[in-house]
Amino acid sequence: MNIIKPKKYPTLYYCPGHLSFAPHVVLNELGKPFELARLSIKAGDTQRESFRKLNPKGKVPVLITENEILTESSAILLYLALSHPESGLLPPTPVGAARAIEWLNWLSCMLTGVIALNFHPSRFTDEVESFNGIKARGRLEVIKVFEQINHRLAENQWALKEGYSIVDPVVLIYFRWGTLLELDMNQFSHWAAHTQRMLQRPAVQKALATEEIVIGN
Ligand SMILES: N[C@@H](CCC(=O)N[C@@H](CS)C(=O)NCC(=O)O)C(=O)O
């Protein structure tokens, strides 16, 4: 694959099961043509020089539009929603939009925090013998945050009271990571119900099939 020059716009660079899943779902929801470029983090694709020319941070998602290279899941999601206001994927009120950012910011900070403690203890210490302690602590911290997510999802059908939005696919991918951490995700009953609602959506089903991943314990 020629990483630098996509054939069509927009093109989403993604790795199956990662945060790029959220903009992938949103692109499906919009129902307009787009291209996907699949990368493997495991195989080192995100650290290759060619990819780092697109995103020096070496992370997915990246969205290439005709004029821009966008990085950061929250920015990409916001761009997609704002450029398709008819989709209703972002509430039109200042407070509604702020609530969306509140969620997105919170969730994406988790990646470098409690989630990384579990999946990447080497980012926090060079002492291999400390890895298990960091992971164990990280697990407790994840559970605390997951309880808060569950609590917030008790209030409405979707993350925002206005309805389904760009936030919900991000919430879904964190649910999957909970299952990968072998947490019993059914303990988070409101979140588990949210996941079931998400799984009914054709855009989600299509993204899961394309990425060849499943969600659930
Ligand atoms: N803050 C970024 C985080 C993106 C991120 O951490 N992506 C991970 C996958 S979930 C990644 O691409 N990792 C590749 C690597 O570290 O080589 C965002 O919200 O988009």
What's the short story on this structure?
This protein has 8 helices and 4 strands. With 217 residues, it is an alpha+beta fold. One of its GO terms (molecular function) is transferase activity.
Number of domains: 2
- What is the CATH architecture annotation of the largest domain? Up-down Bundle
Q: Could you give the distance between the termini?
A: 34 Å
Q: Based on helices, strands and strand pairing, what is the structural class? A: alpha+beta
Can you count the helices?
A: 8
Comma- or semicolon-separated keywords:
binds glutathione; Glutathione S-transferase Yfyf (Class Pi), Chain A, domain 2; 4-stranded mixed β-sheet; alpha+beta; 217 residues; 2 domains; transferase; Glutaredoxin; Glutathione_S-Trfase
What does this protein look like?
This protein is an alpha+beta fold and 217 residues long. 51% of the residues lie in helices and 6% in strands. It folds into 2 domains: 11-87, Glutaredoxin (3-Layer(aba) Sandwich), CATH 3.40.30; 94-200, Up-down Bundle (Glutathione S-transferase Yfyf (Class Pi), Chain A, domain 2), CATH 1.20.1050.10. The chain is built from 8 helices and 4 strands, in the order βαβαββαααααα. The chain has a 4-stranded mixed beta sheet with strand order 2-1-3-4, with helices on one face. α1 (21-30) crosses α8 and α5 (131-153) crosses α7. Bound molecules: glutathione (GSH). Glutathione binds next to α3 and α4. This is Glutathione S-transferase. Keywords: Transferase.
